[in-house]
Each structure stands twice: as structure tokens, then as C-alpha cells.
Amino acid sequence: MAALSAESGPATLTEVARRAELSVSQTHRYLASLMAAGMARQNGANGRYDLGPEAIRVGLAALARIDVFAESDLAIAAFTQETGRTTLVAVLGPAGPTVVRWHAGPRPVVTSLTVGSILPLTGSATGRVFLSFLPEEEVFGALKRYNTGASVKSADVQAIRRHVRADMSASVDEMLIPGLRATAVPILDLQGRPALVVTVIASTAVDRGQDAAIVQRLKELCRSLTEKIGGRWPAQAL
């Protein structure tokens, strides 16, 4: 079952067997049992296997029991302790990207940002991640709703979205607040939307030498949390 669900879409018998590290004959027997229980199904036209209606029902029931914030908060706090970097967690609220959690590192960051702060959609690392993972048809409405007073060209928005999606992160350096740099990474839900965005910030007093390693660690954490809540990290970013 795990091998079938790990595939990005309908898979051949050989592909499922390879991922499960079983023989084709063994895999066929297991799939037959799963289909009898409604946990798997086979496309009559091409013979590929996919999750069945019962597997989807069970999966959705499990997702309904998951509190994404509760699942993520302790892990993000541990990341702050391990790296020594201050992190903030944001959601896309009625007024825009909103800070809902602040984990202070051992070295204080002097800033006006706090829990409840609203961040700009295009002028912050956090906002750019939310912008980049919205469906294309929702981007214009989001800019109109949340980016009031900030003029931005369509070509620039598309460039931001391409870059962030390719790198799975957005960074700004003294753009929002002088003396602070930030990198944001999404935790994606089942539909590929950012359920939360985690942002690591540092002042100019913090050595940049460890930035790349810390950002990579944050990406690994957010990917793990994405998978834990039932989301799927983009294949090109694996």
C-alpha cells in the first residue's frame, strides 16, 4: 500500500513492484487483495494501478484529524534551538500573510515584527512564498486584496513565482526591514497550497557563512512536515 501511495500517479505493476522491492508475482497478489478491499483499483484501458476509493476515504479521514499547526510547532521550535536562528510561522489570513508564531533564537533579533504582524505579499520572503504557491487563477485577486498600495508588474510576479517554485524558498535581504535578511519555505497541504510558511531571519550581526546549510535544513524540515500532513513536495524539488 505504501509503495502504491508513494507513486506520483497511476503506476504499472512493474513500477509498484520495484518501489515495494518485491517480485512482480508477489506484488500482483498483494494488489489483488487491495483491490478486493477497495484500497486499490486498476485502469481497464492501460492496466495501471492507483489508489482505490476506500484508500482515499481513509486518507481524508486521517487528514481531518491532523492539526497542521500542532504537528509543526514543536519541530520548528527544535529547528530554532538546533540552528540558533529566529524563526516565524505565518498563515494567509483575511488581511494577508500573518505571523502566528515566533520562535526566538538565542541571539535576539531587534525588529518591530511580532505575532499578529501582517507581511507584504511581494515585499517579504514570507509573502512571496504564499504568492508563488497560489493557483494561477487566484494570483491577480490576491495581489488586489493583499498588496494594496504596492504596484508590481505582471512579468515581475511571474518571475517571482518561477524562481520560488524552482528553489522551494524565497529570500529577501534588507528589503522589508533594514538590517534583516530572511528566507521562507512552505509547508504544503494536499492541494499544494501553503498551509504554513516558515521563515528564518537573521540580522547583519549574524555570520552569513552558515546560511546555505541552515536554509537546506529548513527545506528538509518543511518537506518532512508537508509529507506528515498528507501534502506532496513537488517532484522536481526532491
Give a verbal description of the structure.
- The protein has two domains: 2-64, Winged helix-like DNA-binding domain superfamily/Winged helix DNA-binding domain (Arc Repressor Mutant, subunit A, Orthogonal Bundle), CATH 1.10.10.10; 68-237, GAF domain (Beta-Lactamase), CATH 3.30.450.
- The protein is built from nine helices and seven strands.
- The chain has helices at 2-6, 13-20, 24-36, 53-64, 68-83, 125-132, 136-146, 154-167, 211-228; strands spanning 40-42, 49-51, 86-93, 96-103, 170-173, 180-188, 194-203.
- Helix 2 (13-20) packs across helix 3 and helix 5 packs antiparallel against helix 9.
- The radius of gyration is 21 Å and the shape is elongated.
Q: For this structure, what is the CATH homologous superfamily of the largest domain?
A: GAF domain
- Number of alpha- plus pi-helical segments: 9
Name the strands of the widest sheet in spatial order: 4-3-7-6-5
For the biggest sheet, the summary is: 5 strands, antiparallel
Task: Indicate the percent of residues in helices.
Answer: 40-55%
Taking all Cα atoms into account, the compactness measure Rg is 21 Å
